[in-house]
Design brief:
The chain has helices at residues 9-14, 21-28, 30-42, 105-109, 117-125, 146-157, 177-185, 201-207, 216-230, 248-258, 283-295, 316-325; strands at 53-59, 63-69, 75-83, 86-91, 94-96, 111-114, 131-136, 169-173, 191-195, 234-240, 263-269, 299-303. With 326 residues, the chain is of the alpha/beta class. The chain folds into 2 domains: 8-50, no CATH class; 51-325, Aldolase class I (TIM Barrel, Alpha-Beta Barrel). A hairpin with a 5-residue loop joins β2 and β3. α7 packs parallel to α9. The longest helix has 15 residues, at 216-230. The termini are far apart. The structure holds iron/sulfur cluster.
Amino acid sequence: MKKLNKYTPIDIWDDPYRFTCKEIMEVIGESEAKVLYSSLYKHSPKKKYRTMSLKTVYKDCDTEKYVFELSDGKCIETVFIKRRDGGTACVSTQVGCSVGCIFCESGRNGFVRNLTPSEIVQQVVLLRRKVNRIVFMGMGEPLFNYDNFIKAIHILRDRNGMNFPTDGITVSTVGPVEQLKKLREEHLKIQLTISLHAATQAARNRIIPNMHIYDINDVVNGALSYAERHNRKVVFAYLLLQGINDKPSDVRQLVKWFGGKNVMLNLLEYNPTSNTQIKKPAKQEMAAFKQQLERAGLEVTMRISHGSKIKAACGQLANKYNKIIE
Ligand code: SF4
């Protein structure tokens, strides 16, 4: 019996960015699908498809910030960070976010909706820039939009289209445990960054309140298990906050978890938002925290933030636009 297609040609012409090339082939045939697919990703398509509208809202020598308006009028942001031979696209996966990190404006306004695979993919395509890294680090928690996030990666990697290399893709997540396990089993060797931000359950509950249902040890072990299975170094991001997660006992716990493991610890400086309850430690205290970890043999980097002048914490810009349009 002939297999019925889930999609029709109208679906394809209406929004082709939601499909892999194989899905399009099943509807319009191999040769036509290949021509269409390559025109979507390799050149500017002649036909006008239903795309998001793009506004450039900030540009300096190294960073460009864009706000995309979606078909329902909601806004998301995408950042392009220039490198010598191209750049990194930092893309969003949700409008708003349910995770509620205390340092983040997206968390403050809550979750609105998941982005579709097409809306995720188009953030990279519509930049019209040479992108050689994609980081899922914009607005939203990618693993809470798991299926659409994975589908978007398959579309971006499709060899008939953008053919983006898997090891150029990074997902940054707070580490919901079941989704981490699922990601471990995917045949996708993407880079994993865990927003850990604490060495105790109590501190993590304070910094990422809506993740309190997950045991911090399970999050760490889930990520270490991913590193082992895919033979990939996992990055743990740790935003240093004075009096909350910068104690000697925190150093000891980090060393206990990560000593001898395929891990890099990325210490981050707090970039002030409207939350006045938290502040960053003094520069010397941050340097001392880093030194103690390094002395114990951990690989550590510390990024000093330049973001405050452009409101670089995820979601801050798009939130401004969402308020305007509400
Ligand atoms: S930092 Fe990321 S995970 Fe946390 S609330 Fe903001 S968007 Fe969500």
